[in-house]
């Protein structure tokens, strides 16, 4: 699982974007214009409540259509962060995701949207206003929104982060730790943050059907989360065996190809009705 949390633009460019024949500067400029040129698109992946088998939320995942290719966020989020373009892109993501959710909520009024937020956005100071604006413009309550932050994003400059998160929570927004277990922090560190959901990283789930050690670790994260009053999402569930394991371990939510891959908004519509027969 590729994760660009501490970007050095050059390294990311060299490693991942070789197939795009642009210099880093040209790429940065292309990224600066991508919003205006309508080159970004959000894909949506279901998050399922295991107890009911219901899709309770979709995670919005960014895609960039560039030079006839679809570039994944692992390839450009690092550069977007190191150039601060992530702030503007992040505003587009939040507003687009909320607009899409508002349309879906006409059919399924309790559906929520999970949006990834980088540490840069949190530290930039504008996140609270961006979130408020996106919610208001799309006539959504704060409770419709989950924000996913990585451990690193929270640890960096934790004092101002804590303040911003408190205000977001006051709006009704749910804060999630994304990719939990990949950093160096313990869950106890997060008690000072108003976190409600822990997303257990895919690297734990990957071998959970054949590696007893991974079962022990995932169970421990789930038990500790539960004791702290936090719900867990098992990330990257791909097989029946993995699904059975995370169910047995007691994770409240799960997400992964087993339940559905990230797809464009238009491809979700059918899935909504299926997921909520009562609506
Ligand atoms: P993430 O937030 O941890 O998202 C989960 C990633 O795992 C997604 O990759 C998703 O497509 C992939 N995935 C989900 N289920 C499975 C599975 O069962 N098997 C496998 N092999 N993969 C699975 P994606 O879409 O490439 O996104 C990568 C990362 O980029 C995200 O990781 C997130 O950190 C970041 N990202 C995506 N969209 C945004 C955004 O709008 N803003 C920011 N700041 N970061 C974003
Ligand atoms: Mg995420
Ligand atoms: Mg994740
Ligand atoms: Mg992950």
UniProtKB/TrEMBL annotation:
UniProt domain EAL: residue ranges: 24-276
Superkingdom, taxonomy of origin: Bacteria
Record carries keyword Transmembrane: yes
Keyword annotations of the record: Membrane, Transmembrane, Transmembrane helix
UniProt keyword Ribonucleoprotein present: no
Protein name: Bifunctional diguanylate cyclase/phosphodiesterase
Lineage, opening ranks: Bacteria, Bacillati, Actinomycetota, Actinomycetes, Mycobacteriales
């Amino acid at each position: 699982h590729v994760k660009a949390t501490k970007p050095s633009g050059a390294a990311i460019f060299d490693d991942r974007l070789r197939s795009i024949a642009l210099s880093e500067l040209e790429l940065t400029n292309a990224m600066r214009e991508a919003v205006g040129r309508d080159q970004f698109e959000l894909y949506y992946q279901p998050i399922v409540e295991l107890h009911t088998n219901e899709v309770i939320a979709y995670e919005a995942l960014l895609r960039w259509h560039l030079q006839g290719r679809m570039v994944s966020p692992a390839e450009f989020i690092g550069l977007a962060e190191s150039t601060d373009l992530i702030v503007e892109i992040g505003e587009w993501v939040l507003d687009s995701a909320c607009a899409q959710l508002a349309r879906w909520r006409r059919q399924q009024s309790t559906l929520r949207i999970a949006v990834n937020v980088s540490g840069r956005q949190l530290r930039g100071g504008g996140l609270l206003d961006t979130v408020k604006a996106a919610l208001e413009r799309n006539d959504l309550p704060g409770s419709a929104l989950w924000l996913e932050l990585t451990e690193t994003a929270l640890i960096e400059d934790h004092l101002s982060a804590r303040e911003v998160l408190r205000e977001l929570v006051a709006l009704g927004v749910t804060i999630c730790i994304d990719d939990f277990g990949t950093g160096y922090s313990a869950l106890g560190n997060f008690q000072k943050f108003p976190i409600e959901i822990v997303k257990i990283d895919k690297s734990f789930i990957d071998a959970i059907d054949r590696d007893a050690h991974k079962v022990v670790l995932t169970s421990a994260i789930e038990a500790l989360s539960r004791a702290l009053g936090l719900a867990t999402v098992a990330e990257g569930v791909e097989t029946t065996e993995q699904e059975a394991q995370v169910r047995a371990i007691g994770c409240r939510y799960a997400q992964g190809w087993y339940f559905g891959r990230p797809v464009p908004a238009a491809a979700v519509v059918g899935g909504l009705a299926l997921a909520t027969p009562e609506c």
